[in-house]
Every structure is written in structure tokens, then in C-alpha cells.
Amino acid sequence: MHTIQTQRLFLSPLQLNDAAAMYAYASDPEVAQYTSWSPHESVEASLAFLNYIIAKENWTPSQFRVVWGIKETRNGPIIGTVSFGQDSPKSGHLDYALSQTYWGKGYTTEAVERILDWVFEYLPRLEKVCSGCLTKNKGSVRVLEKAGFKLVDRYSSKREGKFGGAVLETCLFELNRR
Length: 178
Prior knowledge:
Blueprint: E1 4-5, E2 10-13, H1 19-26, H2 29-32, H3 43-56, E3 65-71, E4 78-88, E5 91-98, H4 107-122, E6 128-134, H5 138-146, E7 150-159, E8 166-176
Parallel strand pairs: 5-6
Antiparallel strand pairs: 1-2, 2-3, 3-4, 4-5, 6-8, 7-8
Helix pairs in contact: 1-3
């Protein structure tokens, strides 16, 4: 297992026994508000989501795809996630979510910066990482800016699923290895 430590956090690949902790934050409508997923309705829904994530995990360079749980202590419960997936040998994308209880403490930025350092080291051919968020999600925009990402595009598009076809503006960010 690739556990990564920051100054205040422990990041480790998700496990099925993280379902209850995931449900604790993923069931919060405020946490899910700007994500692609709806609030989890039960621990079983979180477990199903974890099964899906873990089945897609891949540590092979050029196909790398992992979601780390964010923890305050090595053996504590997860309080959020940071995911990274490669789209090609030279590019990948990053996403994250964090329990509302921990918003405003710099935890997401700290986790994102450390994962970026790790993936650029682990994947020497990787040249850029992309991430995006809805423009309305000011906290997420700020995380990406603080982590060194640059805004490269803003676009509006119709969002189906939980957004019911609403037209929403998205910010697209990039971070280059350099």
C-alpha cells in the first residue's frame, strides 16, 4: 500500500472498511453539492461506491488510477478523498472531496499538493495534470489556485444527472510538471 504522509495528514488507498467514514461526509448535501455524485443515501451506497472505485484501481504507469482516503491520523477514519487518474502517459486528472467539518483548514490543498508531488515522481513521463470544478464552487477554485494550477478555460454546458439539465459554468485548470 502506498500511504503518503503530509505535515498533518495521512493519505492511503481506499479500502472497503472505509464505507462508514465515507458515508459520514458523502451523505452531506453540502459536500455533494458541486460533485458529479449525489449525496450517499446509506452506508451500503458508500460501500457500492467503494467497490466501484477499488475495482478501477490501477498502479500501472500510463494506466495509473488511485483514490486516496484523507485521514488526520494513520489509523483514523477517512475525512475525504483525493483521486488521480492518467488519461494518457503524459497527462492525468485530479479530483477531491472533503468533509464539511474540515473545510477552511487547508487540508485539501495540503493533500492535493502532496499527491501532485508523488505522482510527478512516480510517473516520470507525466507532463500535466488537469482538474476542474463548477465556477460556483469558490472553495475548490481556491484549492486549485493555491496548489499552483492555472485557469485555462471556462465554459458553460448542460449538465444531466443530478443537475437535471441545468446549464452550469465550469473552470478547467492545468498544472504542468515544470
